[in-house]
Amino acid sequence: MSSTVISHDAAHHDSHGHHQESFLSKYIFSMDHKMIAKQFLITGIIMAVFAMVLSILFRIQLAWPDKEFPLLEVFLGKWAEGGRIKPDFFLSLVTIHGTIMVFFVLTAGLSGTFSNLLIPYQIGARDMASPLMNMLSYWSFLIACIVMVASFFIESGPASAGWTIYPPLSAVPTSISGSGLGQTLWLVSMTFFIVSQVMGGVNYISTILNMRTEGMDLWKMPLTIWALFLTAIVGLLSFPVLVSAVVLLIFDRSFGTSFYLSDLVVQGQILPNEGGSPILFQHLFWFLGHPEVYIVVMPALGLTSEVISTNSRKPIFGYHAMVYSLIGITVLSFIVWGHHMFVTGMNPFLGGVFMITTLIIAVPSAVKGFNYLATLWRGNIRFTPAMMFAIGLVSFFISGGLTGLFLGNATLDINLHDTYFVVAHFHLVMGSASIFGMLCGVYHWYPKMFGRMMNAKLGYLHFWLTFLGAYLVFFPMHFMGIDGVPRRYYAFTEFPFMEKWVSVNVLVTWAAIVAGLGQLAFIYNFFSSIWFGKKATQNPWNSNTLEWTTPVEHIHGNWPGEIPAVHRWPYDYSKPGAEQDFIPQTVPFSETMSSNMPHDFEGNEEAERIQEEWNAKNK
Amino acid sequence: MSFKLNNRFKSIMGFVLVVGLFFAVPTMASQDTVAVDTTTSVAAAADVVDSATTAAVTDTTVAAASSSPTVTAAKAAVEEVKEVDPQVYKNMIYYILLFLIICTVVAVIGKVISIYELTTKMNGKYNKLAGNNFQATLLLVFLVVFLYGVYWSYANHGAMAWRDAATEHGAEIDTMFIITTVITTLVLVLTHILLFVFSFKYRMREDKRAYYYPHNNTIEKIWTIVPAIVLTILVIFGFLTWRSITNVPEDLQKSAIQVEVLGEQFQWNVRYAGADGVIGKRNYKLTTPTNPYGIDFKDKTSWDDIQGSDIVLPVGKSVRFHIVSKDIIHSFYIPDFRVQINAVPGMTNYFQFTPTVTTEEMREKMNDPKYDFVMLCAKICGSGHYNMQKKVVVVSEEEYKEWLTTQNKYFSEDLQKEYANTPATEEVNKSASLN
Questions:
Q1: What does the pLDDT look like over B308-340, one tens digit per residue?
Q2: ipTM given for this complex
Q3: How far is CA B306 from CA A295, A346, A512, B164, B416, in A?
Q4: Chain A residues with beta carbon closer than 8 angstroms to that of B235
Q5: Which of A18, A201, A459, B287 is 20 to 30 A from B375, comparing alpha carbons?
Q6: Which residues share a beta bridge with B282?
Q7: If contacts are CB pairs under 8 Å, which of residues 36-95 in chain A contact chain B?
Q8: Are residues B175 and B261 in the same domain?
Q9: Is residue B115, in this structure, part of any structural domain at all?
Q10: pTM of the predicted model, to two decimals?
Q11: Chain A environment of B27 (Cβ under 8 Å)
């Protein structure tokens, strides 16, 4: 019903200027999915830059632990007295870098942006199921961001117990200064963030299930939509568990309960808490925490599936297998969380079980990797910047995923747990791969978002700096981990066996700085192209999906007239017999008689008969 | 078209200019500071005003960083400004200028390429796919660099990182590690060769069309089943080894040397079971300045418990470690032994293993007379996390026994007196705290 109302509205818009939108309603309190997508994206980019600067700061400390940088004191004040970052603040930097990157950039910035942009566009809907809730989702996210950044402006400093905020460290303010007000703000921010995710998730799922256009059955949906759909389901089922963990932690911190605390003597002070267990928090946290890494990586995989297929001018290889492996990952992601806890003192037998489920999840991931390679095989590959980033993602997904075989194996994890090997592993498979998926999406759908093209040359420069930088930063870290260097170490100076790694750290830090500066190429390209980019055509990549049938200028309701019906799957690229090397989903089979194949008709006998007649006539 | 490009060039230069101006502000600030520094000796009233204004420049950042009252912040800022060597600002400006120059060079190169493309277009020699071919070639070059880099890193960093395990179970872990490394490296190299060779070989050609090949169930089944089989093998071996490490039979648990390790911010305490082979009870509520470990001395098995200055172990003997924490979570980690288990407050974790290499032997093997095994904390625990260590020494059995006699008992004479004098009050205290 709502769609008919909006369609009426949209028809009016077509004739231009019936009611003027104010600046506030268009850019700030917008309920339009396209604008909300842009809000998510730009907020995500700002947070990414912020978190990246934090990472450069702690990389500087790691590379030159004995050197003084008076400039740091100018900017950071008491946290870098004498130009050297303090250990407490180092942990804050690590904590907030992780939190922002995982939650604000790769969850909200990635799936928030592309769910909002692509779900209505690619399934053929006028807007989200609930535009108001969509707006609230963005605003809760923004509040979460502001609260998180605000924690840098308080006396005791931001949260510093690691992004996993394991109690008792995060629960007892006397154990580290960041566990005072900073940790409270962290928890408040995270609560807002989860509210945002839940509202967004409900919206994405209901939109995909209820508002697909005529002919768009589930097996005709692009893989992006499948990925975003399953991501939303994972998020909706796992984020509430984090809320419960967070709320119980707030109780422990502020109201004297003992859910996670027992037998504590902190700084000589015997605490009254009794009977709780820190392991309970770890179970609750990782019940979200592990699905979270799939929340982060699945949208990236969805976006790149689409981009690789479009730019190889070839259907994605094994569409059904791709969907089933996504479903497999979704289901399995809920029963593998224990692999983060092999050495926490969890019952070792349970550890063994989690190890089995963990290595099973590698199978669908491997299938996806192979399918990407098969898609490239005998393609006709066009290296747009988006395609470069998609290829980069495949590389990271493989190189980072393979080290998962070490960490998922409880026996090997004994020696690698909480070392730099873990840092290298997840930064490649989850960090770099997802960021590349996100950047790939930005380059590919930029014309759809802003109606202009980004500069391709700057895009290539950005790609190469980031790609090489990421490998130079993260590859050597594997070996530090094998040597036994634990993560979150403020300096490598206190142990003789670590001193040899300081020189490697200098290389890593320089690579990080150069790659970080390389992001300016993207920032400049992104923001200047909004105004000065080359005007985009309606379908610049010759793509099949529905979003490219909408006009370049954004209009409320997306399509000026009726929503187009869908007749075929989205991957009819380079079909033999077709005039062009792509056939949009909106083209009916009756217009492509020369390229139709028997299985296209899905057992529709009437259609097959007509095709056979045509074939006989045109032989 | 040419106008457009020109326009973009202008916008780039404009951006550079704006950025330059933006960073020019600190230049002035630094010059001001020089002025302040040189003239403070005169101590004229004008200087105070002057330094106040310079303070205001930096004040915004400093005040933002610390939420202390503005007055003190301003004062602090004045001091800090004086402390910072003006050379620092100059260096920063140089770096920024260097970066801007690089940006300009990049912009110029971009322009040159655009102009080159325009001329080829005018001459009618423009190859639409030249850029595409260039990127494809770069990907191929990357493949070579990547493979060589992987080899180089394995050879160099690998040699830096790898030391054979010095325990019985560690040797099994090492074997499994090497098997997994061989398999993953093979997959890494093969998939990357396919990825980049395909990218290069099937780059876009004008007259070509991609091969319409949506699926092939046989191939898909193969590459589902093969990884599944490989993973199953890894899982089975991993599971069996994991059980053998974590599931020690009860009689072996009891016959082992018992050592308790208590983690606290930011040190480790070691307690040997003593002559009776039993570690005495510990109750965190009994923690006092004289009994920081919280040992319950009413339990007589605790009387002979020995305080270890280091962790000293006899070679070839099974040792059962009881890992506990006094305050927050730590992680008991000995990289050379392939041993790690968390120290969690409120519960005891166990790790049993047998060292096979003495420190002396290890030193000879490493050709480093100062080499020591070390136990460190691997779970984030606060500001001293990066330096929470305990030396681990593996010696012969005789040396171990001799060393034990030189160590102090936890139940010191002072404590013995304390307990002899006040057994009754202690009882009351305990029942009170339980209530």
A1: 999 999 999 999 999 999 999 999 999 999 999
A2: 0.91
A3: 51, 29, 49, 31, 15
A4: 355-356, 359, 409
A5: B287
A6: B295
A7: 70-71, 73-79, 86-88, 91
A8: no
A9: no
A10: 0.88
A11: none
